[in-house]
Amino acid sequence: MGMITLGQRREGEPVTVSVALSMVGSSRPTLSGTVDIVVDDSIRHTVTLTPGAGQGTATWAVSLAPGVHRTTATYSGNEFYQPFSFSGGTTIQNGRLEVTPPERIVAGQTYTVRVKVVPINGATGTPSGTVRLSHGFWPDQATATLDGTGSATVTLTASFPSGNTPSALVMFVEYLGDGTFLPNSWTAVPAIPYSLPDSSPADGETPEQART
Questions:
Q1: Among 14, 84, 146, 165, which one has the highest count of C-beta atoms within 10 angstroms of its own C-beta?
Q2: DSSP for residue 128
């Protein structure tokens, strides 16, 4: 089987296209040859596999504009294996979510989440549109419209649990896009400490941004 993945290690850098082929079976002769890669039906490149016993890998660095990209790959085959094709895809973002969550959430008390969408990868202009915030308790969900700086502030009152009290909540923030800037999401890592009033929240670090 074959797998092709695209990833950008740092904003503004070329995208790394990674190809990995692996064959199953008790007999695993050397997998060698080439893979023809096509991105968006227009960008073409051929990579030579680093051969191994029943597997082979290759990488290719290419500059791609922000957006949704489709890839197809065709393995050339060798004396042991037949040619075959496989596909993949990814989204190169043009906006990054910067989220300032609360250090902890206490049932019955208000908390504030600040969100800003920042242009990246050469994008210009000010993001607009809507952000949506949610976590484990259904009532604690909200949407907000970005202002003229691409920012939004959401203030919520934390709900009481309907069953067991969790020690922490995983918070999600989604940006829905605006036609120019692409949808994106953020997840609090680690989860945000949660408690009932007058009790000690579980120990936890300040959440940091985790991009998807």
A1: 146
A2: -
